[in-house]
Design goal:
Glutamine Phosphoribosylpyrophosphate, subunit 1, domain 1, Rossmann fold, six-stranded antiparallel beta sheet
């Protein structure tokens, strides 16, 4: 795992100092070594976290044997030894996947080489002959890569903070800011800055020298789509499909366990991470090191379940018992680690867990992707249920019903819910979230509202009427012929997974110089998941049927069946307790009250409702607090 940087368009200027400044800002991604390479018009930089072939023969930037290509690369190519069979004439200097990749590109061409790979990566490759810079990102978006146009030059980096080293980003992207407040993250290929973009997953872009003045108009093009032939292949028999799924998971886990440095795994106690760890332990000849977090709040503490699973599997398990103070201690790091607004509250325990794990190992395996591939989210069931209800009555009837119910005071409904025993879920809040879905027929708008934080961002921006509603939803990406479950999965795989989940894990782990791998995201397993029938994903409220079936072969079902496990935190309580003073200062006395873009009245209303315990506004407030911290660090 590494950090990469590039500058194109130097025009006879020595770019050594500039590329070093960029790579220095990325040193947390690769503290083991730093390398640079410059030529007329181009500079490449690399920070190395040595995982495979830790010798100097794996150093970057790396030049191909024919001297035509120079490469910087972040990630892992899991099938690189198999790919060497296609390059039998090459005299290898070492056993790094970087050397395999640069020689594969030199022999097969950039696009074909990328299509042959199995792995996670962000790549910048300079072709000396045609003087073009090729950028590529892995299929599922595990590794980030940004590019920025400034004064006739193109800048490329793993994280935006590298651009700040040269002060080349400018101007807030208002579309991205609206994304952030609606969803908690920025979607697609946008960034928070007007002149910077993020390369989309499974995409390539080619920049020429001299720089094309319309570099942002030059389209990304995709080299892979997971469900392009979803309707062309018959479903397998249930047991046959289960076995195929297990075989692919085993294949992926085995490939991702290859490492020249100590390796372990995250274990939350849920099905996804437990199954991955079970297969790892089945492969390994020694106990796998596993890690989880335990909380002093019993409502959120799931470490006991993880410990029982670890004991059953006989792993070498470590539980970090943390208090609110331990977790709050890293809050001030959020704006530095996530250098554009990002408000997934689980970023806090993920950051703490990464720090813990890095004290023991250099590589960790995670269960990320299981929900998106195998239909695990509770929200899938909710929207499917609503769409079934909508078929029972005409649309105007549901709009009337939703309108009538929406007049009920949310506070009163929450009070009634508490009286009838619903203490953990505010019934009024839940109802206010679901009612707009009943009145809406377009599933794209429904799903966007279901996963949104602020339905209307708390901004004073002048938004054209035509973009006020439907055009602000998720872009039209998924196949209109998909069933509703497949549609939601495709949206999550395209946006939520790379832009939220994987962004959270990449920045948190890399801030601790820890490499995290996700076996579920092997693209062959992703493709396979699209051909599974719905009853292997979701039956009623039960999701991830296939994974549950496979998991039962390794772990007693009673150990993993139960509410979804993760690394959640009691944020609602904290905002009324240990975080209250800090959050109040950020909102009332800090940047929020004085920010000309923010609608302070709506934000203060959310704060007052939360503090009175009549509403749970933790998600809304967290996005505002994170934005405040970000502006203080990167904008002011």
């Amino acid at each position: 795992m590494c950090g990469i940087a590039a500058i194109l368009g130097l025009c006879n200027i020595d770019g050594t100092n500039s590329i070093r400044l960029m790579t220095e800002r990325l040193s947390h991604r690769g503290p083991d070594a730093m390398g640079t390479w410059t030529e007329d018009g181009i500079a490449l930089g690399h920070d190395r976290l040595s995982i495979i072939d830790t010798s100097l023969s794996g150093s970057q930037p790396m030049t191909s044997k024919n001297s035509e290509w120079v490469l910087v690369f972040n990630g892992e190519i899991y099938n690189h030894l198999e790919l060497r069979d296609k390059l039998q004439s090459v005299k290898w200097q070492g056993h790094s996947d970087t050397e395999t990749l640069v020689e594969l590109i030199a022999s097969w061409g950039f696009d074909e080489a990328i299509k042959m790979t199995v792995g996670m990566f962000a790549i910048a490759a300079w072709n000396k002959r045609n003087r073009k810079l090729y950028l590529a990102r892995d299929r599922m978006g595990e590794k980030p890569i940004y590019y920025c146009k400034h004064e006739g030059r193109l800048y490329v980096a793993s994280e935006l903070k590298a651009f700040h080293a040269l002060a080349v980003v400018a101007g807030l992207n208002q579309d991205a800011l609206q994304d952030f407040f609606r969803f908690g993250y920025i979607i697609g290929n946008k960034s928070i800055w007007k002149n910077a973009r993020r390369l989309s997953p499974a995409c390539i872009i080619i920049a020429t020298f001299p720089i094309n003045s319309d570099i942002f108009v030059c389209p990304e093009y995709s080299y892979w789509k997971p469900h392009s032939n979803i309707m062309s292949r018959p479903y397998a028999h249930f047991q046959e499909a289960i076995q195929q799924t297990e075989d692919l998971i085993q294949q992926s886990v085995s490939a991702q366990m290859v490492s020249d440095v100590p390796l372990g795994a995250f274990l939350s106690g849920g099905i996804d991470s437990s199954l991955i760890v079970a297969i790892m332990q089945n492969i390994s000849h020694r106990p796998i090191k596993t890690f989880t977090i335990g909380f002093d709040d019993t409502d959120y503490n799931e470490s006991h379940r993880a410990e029982k699973i670890a004991k059953h599997l006989r792993t070498d398990h470590t539980t970090l018992n943390v208090t609110a103070a331990d977790l709050i201690s890293v809050v001030d790091e959020i704006a530095e680690v996530w250098d554009e607004p990002f408000a997934d509250e689980s970023q806090i325990p993920t950051l703490v867990l990464s720090k813990l794990t890095r004290n023991h190992v250099k590589v960790a395996i995670s269960g990320d992707g299981g929900d998106e591939l195998f239909g695990g989210y509770e929200r899938y069931y909710r929207l499917l249920t609503i769409r079934r209800w909508q078929k029972l009555l005409p649309g105007f009837a549901w709009k009337f019903t939703a309108s009538a119910l929406s007049r009920l005071p949310v506070d009163a409904v929450n009070f009634i819910g508490r009286q009838i025993g619903s203490k953990s879920v505010l019934l009024g809040d839940r109802l206010s979230k679901l009612l707009p879905l009943l009145a809406e027929n377009d599933r794209r708008a429904q799903y966007s509202k279901l996963v949104s934080h602020w339905h209307v961002p708390p901004l004073k921006l002048s938004i054209p009427e035509k973009t006020s509603q439907i055009d602000m939803e998720f872009p039209r990406f998924a196949d209109t012929q998909m069933d509703d479950l497949s549609y939601m999965q495709s949206i999550d795989q395209r946006y939520y997974l790379p832009d939220d989940i994987l962004t959270k894990v990449d920045r948190a782990s890399m801030s601790a110089s820890l490499e995290v791998r996700a076996p579920f995201l092997d693209h062959r397993l992703v493709e396979h998941s699209w051909f599974l029938p719905r009853n292997m994903k979701q039956v009623g409220r039960i999701g991830k049927v296939a994974l549950r079936t496979i998991s039962s072969r390794y772990i007693p079902p009673e150990l993993v069946n139960g509410p979804k496990s993760g690394f959640g935190i009691p944020l609602a309580k904290w905002l009324r307790g240990p975080l209250k003073k800090w959050a109040f200062e950020a909102i009332k006395d800090g940047e929020v009250a004085n920010d000309q873009l923010l609608d302070f009245g709506r934000i203060w209303q959310a704060w007052s409702e939360h503090q009175s315990s009549t509403r749970n506004r933790q998600t809304l407030l967290w996005s505002v607090i994170v934005y405040s911290a970000w502006t203080r660090r990167w904008l002011r």
